[in-house]
Amino acid sequence: xxxxxxxxxxxxxxxxxxxxxxxxxxxxxxxxxxxxxxxxxxxxxxxxxxxxxxxxxxxxxxxxxxxxxxxxxxxxxxxxxxxxxxxxxxxxxxxxxxxxxxxxxxxxxxxxxxxxxxxxxxxxxxxxxxxxxxxxxxxxxxxxxxxxxxxxxxxxxxxxxxxxxxxxxxxxxxxxxxxxxxxxxxxxxxxxxxxxxxxxxxxxxxxxxxxxxxxxxxxxxxxxxxxxxxxxxxxxxxxxxxxxxxxxxxxxxxxxxxxxxxxxxxxxxxxxxxxxxxxxxxxxxxxxxxxxxxxxxxxxx
Length: 301
Known about the structure:
Helix content: 40-55%
Oligomer: single chain
Mean pLDDT: 81
Strand content: 5-15%
Number of strands: 6
Low-confidence stretches: 47-51
């Protein structure tokens, strides 16, 4: 559940029906009749620390829109990840609608649209990524391909452009002032002053502040974890002649310890958020099943 501030604000923002509608209209300005009731949030959620989730999924009438996380660093492997998100989303759609794939009747499914948001400063990032670009060999032609559209700043001032502007402000404030309560206040103040997601920050300001505060604390812990794992690996590399079985035992124990630690961290995060946010919203922001959030709230985890 390594969610950072940008990921979580993205999920929180576009899980609001009004903001989800604005985002859809950025992607489909020709659809002037869409209403909030036409939009269903179908974001994948997981309970395992290494489980699969996407940052946002929307079903709008016959369209299935999946967005991978916003990226400040370009990653060319997005098509494969989004393909896996799409597989899981269709699997859930089939189950929820009781579709039978082995009969003689043609089953109808929503048409997918796949996106990733790029918030970085590189100018050479392509507008489209394809799964076929990842295929081995010289001949990339294949029977199966997936296209992912890269959304970037375009000089407009719609909700997507404002989210990208928020990401840039967040990165700059953290670079200048580190991760602190004061930094969060500076981020929100800067956004409001510059007309960035003003309604969202004013109506959901306290919830956003609480989420950002908790995730800033988590990011500090992750940095410490990465540092200690690196030092531990370096020490292990220098130690020669260790018995293989003992080394494997330590590796297995370390993996189990990390998994347990992340589960405990997950529970601790939910327990902190319960004090300031309802359980449904926690599930949306952290992309966890609502039943799992409830079980933590009830002390069953």
